[in-house]
Design a protein that fits this description.
By secondary structure, this protein is of the alpha/beta class. The chain has one domain: Carbamate kinase. The strands form 2 sheets. Strands 3, 4, 5, 6, 7, 8, 9, 10, 11, 12 and 13 form an 11-stranded mixed beta sheet that branches.
């Protein structure tokens, strides 16, 4: 069974979660109540027949780029950030399995005691067997963000779309925190996003999606039921795809 989203049938999604989302109002660490709610939202779409792979960030614990800007070696800082994503992955896995969902945690950094190594064909097989797969450890290499990991893994597993679950409700033409007149796009093309310098993903991640025509849906994962509505094809957030010259504003 597949779900209709924006007129298309989606069978397999790549859900990108920022680490900050897991912290909730504390802005640091892991909030059990937030992770429990995320797990239940993921289960709702999984129960509708959608295959779900999740790339998780680590910014709620450690941000490699910030540490590097303060003098730490960039590669070392990035590896520390990758370790943080594994901690987050274990937390999400625990709450998913407490709800009866079979999961696998795969890591791009070898850490046999707690996670499988990332193997593309094994990941695809897990999805086909109706397991939720959490992908931690970034790409396994420094200098790449978890946004890039999400784009890369989505292309590798032939996902239908990247769901980017954030703390904002979409992509705006200006910073809505600074400009009360900023308007939210409901849909925008890759080229328009580049021309308007919209900050959707880092440049490497965005290029991967654009070159492989991988659509991206940006929405507020903290809004109750938003993930399910997105999976059911209801208009939420901002859709970024290859339809040239399209830039619609929310009314």
């Amino acid at each position: 069974m597949a779900t209709q989203i924006a007129g298309k049938s989606y069978k397999r999604i790549l859900l990108k979660l920022s680490g900050e989302v897991l912290a909730g109002e504390d802005h640091y660490g892991i909030s059990p109540s937030v992770v429990r709610d995320l797990a239940r939202q993921i289960i709702e779409i999984h129960q509708r027949g959608i295959e779900v792979a999740i790339v998780i960030g680590g910014g709620n614990i450690f941000r490699g780029m910030k540490a590097a800007s303060e003098g730490m070696d960039r590669a070392t800082a990035d590896y520390m950030g990758m370790m943080a994503t594994i901690i987050n992955g274990l937390a999400l896995q625990d709450f998913l399995e407490k709800e009866g969902v079979v999961t696998r945690l795969q890591s791009a950094i070898e850490i046999k005691s707690v996670a499988e190594p990332f193997i593309r064909r094994r990941l695809i097989r897990h999805l086909e067997k109706r397991r939720v797969v959490i992908l931690a450890g970034g790409t396994g290499s420094p200098y790449f963000t978890t946004d890039t990991t999400a784009a890369l893994r989505a292309v590798e597993i032939k996902a239908d779309i990247v769901f980017k679950g954030t703390r904002v409700d979409g992509v705006y033409d200006d910073d809505p925190r600074k400009n009360p007149n900023a308007r939210r796009y409901t849909r925008v093309s890759y080229m328009d996003a580049l021309q308007k310098q919209l900050k959707i993903m880092d440049s490497t991640a965005f290029s991967l999606c654009m070159d492989n025509k991988m659509p991206i849906l940006v929405f507020n994962i903290e809004e109750n039921g938003c993930l399910l509505r997105a999976a059911q094809g209801e208009p939420v957030g901002t859709l970024v795809d290859s339809q040239e010259g399209v830039a619609y504003y929310d009314q």
